[in-house]
Amino acid sequence: MKKIYITIACLIGLLSGCNDEFMERYPLDQISDENFWKTEQDLELYCNSFYSTYITGFGSGWGTSTVSPYGYNEAIAYGDVISDNGAPQTYSKVAADQYNGHISGGSGSGGWNWSNIRDLNYFLDNYQRGDVATEVRNVYAGEIYFFKAWDYFKKVKTFGDVPWLTHVVQTNSPELLAPRTPREEVMDSVIYILDKAISYLPEKGAEKTDRLNKDMALHLKSRICLYEGTYRKYHSELGLDGTEFLKEAAAASEQLMDGRYSLYSTGDIDNDYNDFFATYSYDGNPEVILWKEYAADLNLGVAFSRYYAQNLRHQHGATRSLVDEYLCVDGQPISESDLFLGKSSIQTEMQNRDPRLSQTIANFGTYNLQAGVQGANNAPLPNIPGLSGNKCPTGYRVAKWFLNDPADWDRVTNGMQAAIVFRYAETLLNYAEAKYELGELNQTVLDETINLIRARVNMPPLVMGAISADPIMESNYATYCSYMPEPVLREIRRERRVELAFESFRWDDLMRWKAGRFLEIPVEGIKFVQEQFPGVEIGKDVFLSEEGYILPYFETLPNGRAFDEEKQYLFPIPIEDLVLNPNLDQNPGWESN
Q: In this record, what's one Pfam family (predicted)?
């Protein structure tokens, strides 16, 4: 299986009574009939609804749903707007240490929601009731374990310790008034059920059409274990050893590195990277492990391509912090390379750089919208403040995911741009980082991972023992982080940031590396050149740094973003839930908020 359709059926009638946010609501009582769970079709029907719940892609319909508690639209492309990669027109309260959703959201809000876990456990409590062959029903159990592991991973990232629930919680269940389960126990349980999913799910190619396979679970394990292993290492205050998780991350990644997958490339280094993210189908694509396909003919699509092209959602732009990390074509950082031409304009600074820069960030006059199409005034110049249209507050208009097809824009909520969910480049990056953290990195590992990714865009390889200094990155680590990574780890992290930009990884990476204060790096945009924007007035429409870079939050956030290391690596539990269960304790730093 290479795709997940948005067309998978949902238990609409059966689930109609299942929108209560509280854990104690008995789940799916409309289907508690003794005649259910008897056939494979029953098991498949029950599992179907979880595909659209967890494999969101670009969302569906108008694509306006937001990820709680982070507050960005759920489309994969928008996750970085709360990180140091991106800047939305209206600044993110999460990134500015102004989040207070736990006060206003009520019980079950802010990600502290257990309805999906309840529904997953309901399956696990009942799926063995029917006369279905063990090997058949275990496939569907594998799907449920996959989704449960993914759900709990998200909850641990958000809250740390969370209740581990193995069965459906009833109104009189003691779990309702139990304290949170320690993170160590929860994550051990997550890997246990994920290993069960891996053992139960079919091999790639043996699964039913549009259903999960073993490789997808292996990739999820690679992601989860790298996160947990590095989180434990850099958050030493937890007193937890992450070594076993790092070993599992490397092992899961290595199982996918046996030749079944490769990086997408046609040899066109100036277009392949951007083209990879702008398509209707990933059938046959050797890099994609899991993707979501849309179907306009069935009235099932999403408005993503239309509003992304118009830069309507978040009205965001990339940051100078991200742009400065792209190497020059000689493999040297901009502070060290003779090929870097300076920052006098966006046109100048994008010359002689890693080809992924100009395929991720639109230079003036590139990735244009066709004349006459709504939103066409967003290009060739970005709509910085002072111009009409949907704003690009930094001037660095994001080109990654831009599908240049007005036909798809005109489909609006039936747009069909396909969404990558898991891809092989992440697998390689996970493996390289895990091997470094285990003390097992060598040139062979770099050549099998980082250097394959660089080779796609004809960038020089990373060579151990021959890594240049980077004063910009080193200064940022010295100022905003409590440790200085070794040069090779710094470069692995750079490669991850560049390759995975605007794929919703950066926030998680900063959190697990204990580098949250990178959010405090001043948010800057392009070098403002008055001749390019004759109608824009400095000091009224735009505000500039001493170096002449656009400052998008000069008026709205004059003191810049803030990150409180005592609390912001985790989110708070809603106050109402603390009242309902007095045995729950609030996360550190949020007690008085």
A: SusD-like_3
C-beta atoms surrounding 255 within 10 Å:
17
Encode 479-511: b = buried (16+ Cβ within 10 Å), e = exposed: ebbeeebebbbbbbbbbbbbbbbbbbbbbbbbb
Determine the Cα–Cα distance for residues 456 and 204; give it in Å rounded to an integer. Answer: 25
Q: Cis omega before residue 182 (within 30°)?
A: no
pLDDT in tens, 316-338: 999 999 999 999 999 999 999 99
Q: Give the orientation angle of helix 183-200 with respect to helix 214-234, to 10 degrees.
A: 160
Q: Do 286 and 404 share a domain, yes or no? A: no
Q: Domain residues for 576?
A: 566-593
Residues 13 and 36 in one domain: yes
Residues 517 and 580 in one domain: no
Tally of domains within the chain = 3
**pLDDT higher than 60, residue 564:** yes
Same domain, residue pair 122 and 23 = yes
pLDDT band at 296 (very low <50, low <70, confident <90, very high): confident
Label the pairing between strands 4-5 and 288-293: parallel
Structure confidence by residue, pLDDT tens digits, 516-559: 999 999 999 999 999 999 999 999 999 999 999 999 999 999 99
pTM for the whole structure? 0.94
Q: Is 87 in the same domain as 47?
A: no
Specify whether 171 is located in the same domain as 267.
yes
pLDDT of residue 30: 55
E-state strands within 252-403: 288-293, 316-318
Residue 358 CA to residue 336 CA, distance in Å, equals: 20
Question: Would you state the structure tokens that stand for residue 166, as one six-digit string?
Answer: 């193995």
Q: Tell me: do 533 and 574 sit in the same domain.
A: no
Asked if pLDDT for residue 20 goes beyond 70, the answer is no
